[in-house]
Design a protein that fits this description.
heterodimer, A: 437 residues, mainly alpha, MetI-like fold, 2% strand, flat, B: 282 residues, sugar transport (chain A)
């Protein structure tokens, strides 16, 4: 009885691929050896610096030095670049560790097969095995890599930023270094009067906005859908086509267009109000009216989608339900309340909740329409219609208060993600999906 | 009694038509207004009447000939980025949703939850990191960078909806094909792909529209004016001019909206199917 599995496993642990070669899987073994060789070259020159970088965030800022009597700018460590380089190296390192672990497990498993007297797979057989049984995982590899580097890595990066002092005016590289400060940013945001006042103010408006904009578009859409699908209404297709137009115009365009329509001085809306002898309203410049405007405009943009959705649901409601209600002498209103409404609510509830979550993060609607303005003097860099998400945009790109923006981003993320995860885990398509087939 | 009911019915229909007409006017008016403004001589936002007294194509001509607005170049850039990121993005999204819908493997539900959560992240929080990452790879100010980032982000937005749709394609079809000797890949190309046309249309259209309207990220990445997309150009126009040349903006807006609206009109049927099938299953 030979002890192949332990030997192959240990060999693979020492140097990737050795175990596979021991198992007489030469092509696979050579591939693993190549991976390890590349990894060794990369990590020997980078790994030490990555650990140094992520703990210290650089040690020497740019400074003036006298070289032969002339003052010269010597570039120092750029903390943020160091942070991201270290992060990328460490991510590669984690990937390498995973491959290393898989390689050991593979050598061990094949060794075990050999102990049982089965010959190890040829390379062709291995490929077939992967295509037949590990298909999903290999399918997911490519999208997974993209998501890892363009979504997960940036998220880790920004979570880390919240724990640094990366903010104007004192800690902007390359002139100055950035340091770890722990939870100080969060403390400032939630407790320090100047920040917390803005934070709670903006948070309150964000929640009001999310509730109002979701409810108005949803019930607006429902109303329109019911109107069109009434018995006796003709040209149903035409009405739907006309009312769908706002959905087909790119949002960026339609919102910028609305900004001009509601322009207080020259916009047509105030002009028409003038024809009726009414004074113009400060649609975008008064804190209260600006809030009204964004909600009205959002209805214009959002109702068509809800309408489409609800019209789709209406066609699925069985006709006999209405007939049964008619037999019992139900009025139109009763039919709506007892049959239609519950059916619509039941099948669109998940979408409704997702829309709510989406509205919390509805950047375009606010940013393109009012830009968060009118300015609110009591706030730190925020205006009266700013949502958390537009506020953090201003903090990052206009004010360079990156750590504060990251902290707000994390809080926002926890609210939205918690909400939608809770909702999604409860939906049918997550829980009982296998029962549908 | 019967007459009373008829009258009530008549009144109800009349009221409904009135409301519908009002809604239709509200829906069309802004689009019509900007279309007509783009043909209006002069630059001002203000106009006495909705329909201009004379029509002119000068604003369209200016967009394409003026050295300040390289609208033709921007249009080409955007079209290129939109087409490529759409193609790659659709493939990535379909791969992900096919794997999640048809295969049962460990960590599958975790993958789905992760996708959902990651999609909830405020996008420009990650912009700084992506910017630095692209800088590391010397990809700043290239269209390739935008294509990669848009395509890589596509599975986050579309996978769960697409998966909901794929779940509705009966599994018995797969099994029949498998008995006939089709491989996993064969099932994907010959059965899943043809049957998920509404879904593919929906995803492709959302991905195609993205580059036409994304002005924040594109502005960060594309530094030189020749490389801009139309969205960046329009945003720049609005920001630098502050209503001083509204009719030019209107012409640009029409040029961006028209192709997208035509696509919507042609694909309306498929689009509605895709949207409702993906959503009603939640």
């Amino acid at each position: 009885m030979q002890r192949h599995k332990a030997r192959a496993g240990i060999l693979s642990a020492i140097f990737m691929g050795l175990g596979q070669i021991y198992n007489r899987q030469f092509i696979k073994g050579l591939m693993f050896i190549a991976v390890e060789a590349v990894a060794l070259i990369y990590f020997i020159s980078n790994l030490g610096r990555a650990f140094w970088g992520i703990t210290t965030l650089g040690e020497s800022p740019s400074r003036l030095e006298k070289v032969k009597g002339i003052a010269k700018m010597v570039p120092g460590d750029h903390s943020i670049v160091i942070l991201i380089e270290s992060l990328i190296t460490l991510l590669f390192f984690v990937l390498f560790l995973i491959i290393w672990y898989m390689n050991i497990r593979d050598a061990y498993k094949i060794g075990a097969e050999r102990e049982n007297g089965r010959p190890s797979n040829t390379f062709k057989q291995s490929v077939r095995y992967i295509l037949d049984y590990k298909f999903a995982q290999s399918f997911l590899l490519l999208p997974g890599m993209g998501i890892l580097f363009f979504t997960i890595m940036p998220i880790i990066f920004m979570i880390m930023l919240a724990f640094t002092n990366y903010a104007a005016p004192n800690h902007i590289p390359p002139a100055k270094l950035v340091d770890w400060v722990g939870f100080e940013t969060f403390r400032n945001l939630l407790v320090l009067k100047s920040w917390s006042h803005t934070f709670y103010g903006v948070l309150t408006w964000t929640i009001i906005w999310a509730v109002l904009s979701t409810v108005t578009t949803y019930f607006g859409g429902m109303l329109v859908a019911l109107l069109i699908s009434q018995k006796g209404i003709r040209f149903k297709g035409m009405w739907r086509m006309l009312l769908i137009i706002p959905y087909a115009i790119p949002q960026m365009i339609s919102l910028l267009l609305m900004r001009n329509l509601f322009n207080g001085q020259f916009g047509p809306i105030n002009q028409y109000l003038g024809y009726f002898g009414l004074g113009g309203l400060p649609w975008l410049t008064d804190p209260f009216w600006a809030k009204v405007t964004v909600i009205v405009v959002n209805m214009w943009v959002g109702i068509p989608v809800s309408m489409l959705l609800i019209m789709g649901v209406l066609t699925t409601i069985p006709r006999d339900m209405y007939e049964a209600a008619e037999v019992d002498g139900a009025t139109n209103y009763q039919k709506f309340r007892i049959v239609t409404l519950p059916m619509i609510l039941f099948s669109t509830a998940p979408t409704l909740i997702m829309q709510f979550a989406g509205n919390i993060n509805n950047f375009n609607a606010i940013f393109l329409l009012t830009g968060g303005n009118p300015v609110n003097g009591n706030y730190q860099y925020a205006g009266s219609t700013d949502l958390l998400v537009t506020w953090l945009y201003k903090l990052t790109l206009d004010q360079n208060k990156n750590n504060m923006a990251s902290a707000i981003g994390i809080i926002l993320f926890i609210i939205v993600a918690g909400f939608s995860l809770y909702n999604y885990r409860r939906t049918k398509s997550f829980q009982e999906e296998d029962m549908i087939q | 009694m019967i007459i009373g009911r008829k009258a009530a019915n008549f009144i109800r229909l009349c009221l409904s038509y009135i409301v519908l007409v009002a809604l239709a006017v509200a829906a069309i008016y802004p689009a019509l207004w900007i279309l007509l403004a783009s043909f209006r001589p002069g630059k001002s936002l203000y106009s006495k009447t909705l329909i201009p007294e004379t029509f002119t194509l000068a604003h369209y001509k200016e967009l394409f000939t003026s050295p300040v607005y390289m609208f033709g170049t921007w249009y080409g850039n955007t079209l290129k980025i939109a087409v490529f990121s759409m193609l790659i993005g659709v493939v990535l999204t379909l791969l992900t949703s096919y794997a999640l819908s048809r295969f049962r493997f460990r960590s599958r539900k975790t993958t789905m939850s992760t996708l959902l959560i990651l999609g909830m992240f405020p996008g420009f929080m990650s912009m700084i990191a992506i910017y630095l990452l692209l800088k590391e790879f010397n990809l700043l100010d290239t269209h390739l960078a935008l294509i990669i980032v848009y395509a890589a982000g596509a599975p986050l937005g579309g996978t769960l909806i697409a998966k909901g749709f794929l779940d509705t394609i009966p599994r018995s079809l797969d099994e029949a094909a498998r008995i006939d000797g089709a491989s996993n890949f064969g099932i994907f190309t010959r059965i899943i792909l043809p049957l998920s046309r509404p879904m593919i249309t929906y995803i492709a259209l959302t991905l195609f529209v993205g580059p036409w309207v994304d002005f924040i990220f594109a502005k960060l990445i594309l530094r030189t004016k020749e490389n801009w997309t139309v969205a960046v150009g329009m945003w720049d126009m609005v920001n630098t001019m502050q209503n001083s040349n509204f009719t030019l903006f209107a012409a640009g807006a029409v040029l961006i909206s028209v192709p997208i609206m035509i696509l919507f009109a042609f694909l309306q049927r498929l689009l509605v199917d895709g949207l409702t099938a993906g959503a009603s299953k939640g």
